[in-house]
């Protein structure tokens, strides 16, 4: 099975979201047999793109036109192209991706590759397009009236910007965690079991096992195992966010998109979510938007700095935070603007 539209009708695919449920999550689950067929037999999160697929971009990006390069470092870096050649195939990548709201261009021809099972942080001042870019990666922007996309997003040999893409399937493979925890108005157990059950897991034993597995992976099991049938809304904000992450991984995604997942949390809960991200990257490729520079430095392997819809600089996190190539990156991470 591929991400190209299945023979299910749109009505079947979008059936029965629960009341109050976010539309993203209404379309997430698919735990039926073959749900992971995209990866079947490869043993990898996503197979390398076929030879006909365009090569992923170098890990850098075109600089913003008005950008002032910093003086060259004394020890030259390997070129982006050289680094990419040596690297394993990315989990996915964008090529000249632009996003518009009506006439206004919010993302400007961004090309970037996301390494398999690594964490990429998106940083930049408010309004620079981080959330827009993130939402476009699983076509959530389709749900915004007037929003449109140009360019390509390649995942497993498919350009998911293609109109034939099965977006329901896509959003199952690429889960989303939002800034504010948004558990369903259901029990803790049902929050996690909802997606798998919706897509055909009927056995109580299988659901019990899956719920426990996901709650353990999100370090929540010990805190909630004695009250699984209480409302998810009765949990603390930090616990709710971990419950939402458990709900996301219950449908076996390959990629997790997180838009400021800890910005509404206290420092202790934030630390737990950060620990969780470090654990989850064993199994998932993660893209996280954050305004917290320390958080980006702590949790991510690579960091991308956005400004006014341009990808200004994208590199190893350590490089971005110790020796960025662009002056505006330096100014931003040093708190001189934004
Ligand atoms: N639904 C929308 N309709 C029209 N314009 C939008 C919409 N959402 C975002 N924009 C505009 O697109 C640009 C990028 O917004 P976006 O929310 O992606 O920025 P951001 O970097 O995530 O900001 P923040 O850090 O404040 O969350 C902004 O100019 C914003 O006003
Ligand atoms: Mg945002």
Provide a descriptive summary of the structure in words.
The chain has helices spanning 10-13, 23-26, 80-86, 130-136, 167-173, 188-198, 204-217, 221-224, 237-249, 267-280, 293-299, 317-322, 327-333; strands at 92-101, 104-114, 119-123, 147-155, 158-159, 174-177, 255-259, 285-289, 302-307, 310-316. With 338 residues, it is an alpha/beta fold. Helix 10 links the parallel strand 7 (255-259) and strand 8 (285-289). Helix 6 runs parallel beside helix 9 (237-249) and helix 9 packs parallel to helix 10. The chain binds adenosine-5'-triphosphate and magnesium ion (MG).
Summarize this entry quickly.
With 338 residues, this protein is an alpha/beta fold. It has 13 helices and ten strands.
CATH 4th-level superfamily of the domain at 26-44 and 114-134 and 166-333:
P-loop containing nucleotide triphosphate hydrolases
* Ligand set: adenosine-5'-triphosphate, magnesium ion
Sheet-strand content, in percent, reads 15-25%
Physical arrangement of strands within the biggest beta sheet: 6-7-8-3-9-10
Number of DSSP-assigned strands? 10
Tell me the CATH architecture of the domain at 26-44 and 114-134 and 166-333: 3-Layer(aba) Sandwich
Radius of gyration: 20 Å
Order of helices and strands: HHHEEEHEEHEHHHHEHEHEEHH
Question: Mean pLDDT score, rounded?
Answer: 81
Text of the CATH class of the domain at 26-44 and 114-134 and 166-333: Alpha Beta
* Proportion of helical residues: 25-40%
Q: What is the subunit arrangement here?
A: single chain
């Amino acid at each position: 099975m591929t991400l190209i539209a299945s023979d299910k009708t749109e009505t079947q695919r979008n059936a029965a979201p629960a009341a109050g449920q976010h539309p993203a999550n209404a379309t997430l689950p698919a735990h039926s047999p073959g749900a992971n067929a995209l990866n079947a037999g490869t043993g990898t999160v996503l197979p390398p793109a076929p030879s006909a697929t365009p090569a992923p971009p170098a890990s850098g990006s075109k600089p913003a036109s008005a950008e002032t390069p910093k003086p060259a470092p004394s020890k030259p870096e390997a070129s982006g192209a050289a680094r990419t050649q040596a690297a394993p195939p990315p989990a996915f990548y964008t090529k000249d991706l632009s996003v518009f709201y009506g006439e206004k261009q919010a993302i400007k021809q961004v090309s970037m590759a996301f390494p398999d099972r690594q964490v990429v942080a998106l940083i930049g001042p408010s309004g620079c397009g981080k959330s827009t870019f993130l939402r476009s990666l699983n076509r959530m922007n389709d749900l915004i009236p007037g929003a449109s996309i140009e360019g390509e997003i390649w995942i497993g040999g498919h350009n998911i910007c293609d109109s034939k893409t099965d977006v329901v399937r896509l959003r199952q493979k690429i889960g989303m965690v939002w800034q504010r925890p948004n558990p369903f108005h259901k029990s803790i157990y049902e929050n996690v079991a909802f997606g798998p059950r919706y897509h055909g897991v009927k056995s109580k034993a299988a659901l019990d096992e899956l719920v426990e597995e996901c709650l353990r992976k999100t370090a929540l099991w010990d805190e909630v195992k004695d009250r699984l049938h209480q409302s998810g809304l009765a949990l603390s904000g930090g616990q709710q966010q971990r419950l939402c992450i458990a709900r996301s991984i219950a449908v076996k995604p390959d990629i997790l998109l997180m838009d400021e997942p800890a910005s509404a949390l206290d420092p202790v809960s934030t630390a737990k979510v950060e620990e969780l991200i470090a654990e989850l990257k064993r199994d998932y490729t993660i893209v996280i938007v954050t305004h917290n520079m320390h958080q980006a430095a702590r949790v991510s392997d690579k960091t991308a700095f956005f400004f006014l819809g341009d990808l200004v600089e994208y590199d190893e996190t350590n490089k971005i935070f110790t020796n960025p190539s662009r002056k505006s990156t330096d100014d931003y991470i040093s708190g001189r603007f934004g």
